[in-house]
Write a structure and sequence with these properties.
This protein has helices at residues 2-10, 20-32, 40-56, 65-97, 102-121, 124-135, 140-147, 151-171. By secondary structure, the protein is an all-alpha fold.
């Protein structure tokens, strides 16, 4: 259903759920929502993906694709800001944990930057568990209860995350 409608609206690009006007509107909503210019193409792709997922899931096409896409773009902009604030808070917490000893400062700074980069590369679930375990100092049982997942899942994710972070630190020749 969505594909047929997209072809009629699009004319030249069959299968693309957004026509040129809708894409411009999505870009404008994202930009006005504070998303940086460099991230706009990713935001547009996310809107396309959500439209395609609706069609693949058997859902009816939105009555007004343009309005629906604008709402989704607005939600994506809010998500972008939340993620940015979360990263800023994590950076502040990491900076607060840095020792004040100037003799160790440079080595520690290099390690902190490498750990922060390694954390950024981890999947969200692994990063969350690693931060809760080692930065918030929560026990495995406490993490499992807080997240509502089995302890075995916490242990598995923690093991995988530590192994990936360790490999990254060795790759960067930090440790």
């Amino acid at each position: 259903m969505l594909r047929g409608r997209a072809r009629r609206v699009q004319g030249g690009r069959p299968g693309d759920p957004l026509d040129a006007d809708q894409e411009r509107r999505v870009r404008a909503v994202l930009a006005l929502g504070g998303v940086p210019q460099a991230d706009l193409p990713d935001g547009v792709q996310q809107v396309r993906l959500r439209l395609l997922e609706r069609a693949a899931g058997g859902q009816e096409a939105p009555r007004d694709v343009s309005a629906w896409a604008a709402v989704v773009a607005s939600n994506l902009a809010m998500d972008w800001h939340r993620a940015k604030r979360r990263q800023e808070r994590l950076g502040e917490r990491l900076a607060a944990l840095r020792p004040a000893d100037p003799a160790v400062g440079e080595d520690s700074s290099v390690l902190s930057v490498a750990v922060a980069r390694g954390l950024d590369e981890l999947p969200d679930a692994q990063r969350q568990i690693l931060v809760l375990r080692f930065y918030a100092d929560l026990p495995v049982r406490g993490i499992a209860e807080a997240l509502g997942i089995p302890e075995g899942t916490v242990k598995s994710r923690l093991h995988t995350a530590v192994r990936a972070l360790r490999a990254r630190l060795h790759e960067d020749e930090v440790v």
